[in-house]
Write a structure and sequence with these properties.
The chain is an alpha/beta fold and 247 residues long. It has a domain of 169 residues: 3-Layer(aba) Sandwich (Rossmann fold), CATH 3.40.50.150. A six-stranded mixed sheet has the order 2-1-3-4-6-5. Strand 3, helix 2 and strand 4 form a beta-alpha-beta unit. Helix 6 runs antiparallel to helix 7.
Length: 247
C-alpha cells in the first residue's frame, strides 16, 4: 500500500528547525567520508532525523522511543563507533552537573563530530519560559512536563557553553544560533489558553496554531551570534585527533 507523507516543511517550525539544521550540518561535515556515515542520535526518536538527511541513524533513548534503550551517560557502544553523534533538545532535560559528562560520553563514541542543539539560556528566555509555565498551569491545572524540566534543570547559559568548550578541549567548537522564542512562545501561549475555551473554539485555535507554525512559512535564519530573541543554539564539535585514540 502506498503511503503519502507530507513534506517536512509542513512540520511545526520548532521541530523542523532543529532537525533541518542538524541534518544540514551533518551533510556538510560528512560529505567527504569514504564510507557511508553512521550517525547516533542520543535522545532522538526512531526515524525522525533520517527525514532530513540520507545517512543511517541509530536513535538511543531511555524512554523507549528510540531504536535502542540506553542511558546517555553510559552508551553501550565502543569508542569511535559512529561517524557522528547528535543530541537534539536533550541537554536542557539533564541536571546541569551531568551535562559535561554526557557530552564527553558522546565524544567517546564518535569518530569525528558531535552536534548539539538546545534552547539558549539567555536571562530573558529563561524568564519567558517561567511565565509560559505559569500560564500553562493556570489554564490546564497541571504542570507542563518539558517546561517544568527546563525550569528545574535550567537552560544552558552562555557561561555554561564556555565551560563545555573548556571541558572538552582539544575538541573544537563552532556555535550557531536560530529561532525566536518570542513568536514561538506566542504559539505556545495560544495553545495553553485554548484549554479554557469550549471544545469547538479550542479545536479552532489549535488548528490555527498548526497552520501558522508550519515551517514553510518561517525561513530558518542561522547566525554566528545570538540576538535578543534567540531561541536555540547549535554546537558543532570536532573531535581532536588525540581524542580518537581508543582507551
Amino acid at each position: 500500500m502506498i503511503q503519502f507523507r507530507l513534506p517536512t516543511q509542513f512540520m511545526p517550525y520548532d521541530v523542523y528547525e532543529r532537525h533541518k539544521i542538524v541534518g544540514s550540518l551533518l551533510q556538510t561535515t560528512l560529505a567527504s567520508q569514504n564510507t557511508p556515515p553512521l550517525v547516533l542520535d542520543v535522545g532522538g526518536r526512531i526515524e525522525l532525523l533520517e527525514k532530513f538527511m540520507p545517512y543511517r541513524v541509530i536513535s538511543v533513548n531511555p524512554d523507549g522511543t528510540g531504536a535502542v534503550y540506553a542511558n546517555g551517560l553510559t552508551l553501550p557502544f565502543a569508542d569511535n563507533a559512529f561517524t557522528a553523534v547528535v543530541n537534539i533538545d536533550t541537554l536542557e532535560h539533564l541536571p546541569s552537573d551531568i551535562r559535561i559528562p554526557f557530552i564527553q560520553e558522546c565524544l567517546r563514541v564518535t569518530q569525528h563530530y558531535v552536534i548539539i542543539a538546545a534552547p539558549y539560556g539567555s536571562q530573558a528566555h529563561i524568564q519567558h519560559e517561567k511565565e509560559l509555565h505559569v500560564l500553562y498551569q493556570k489554564s490546564n491545572g497541571r504542570s507542563h512536563q518539558y517546561l517544568s524540566e527546563h525550569i528545574q534543570y535550567g537552560l544552558p547559559t552562555p557561561a555554561q557553553l564556555d565551560q563545555i568548550e573548556e571541558a572538552i578541549f582539544p575538541a573544537t567548537v563552532t556555535r550557531s544560533y536560530a529561532g525566536d522564542y518570542i513568536w514561538q512562545g506566542k504559539t505556545f501561549a495560544r495553545a495553553a489558553k485554548a484549554a479554557k475555551h469550549p471544545r469547538f473554539q479550542a479545536r479552532f485555535i489549535n488548528v490555527y496554531n498548526q497552520i501558522v507554525s508550519m515551517a514553510f512559512l518561517h525561513p530558518i535564519r542561522l547566525t554566528s551570534a545570538p540576538n535578543a530573541a534567540t531561541n536555540r543554539f547549535y554546537l558543532l564539535i570536532e573531535k581532536a585527533a588525540a581524542q580518537r585514540v581508543a582507551k
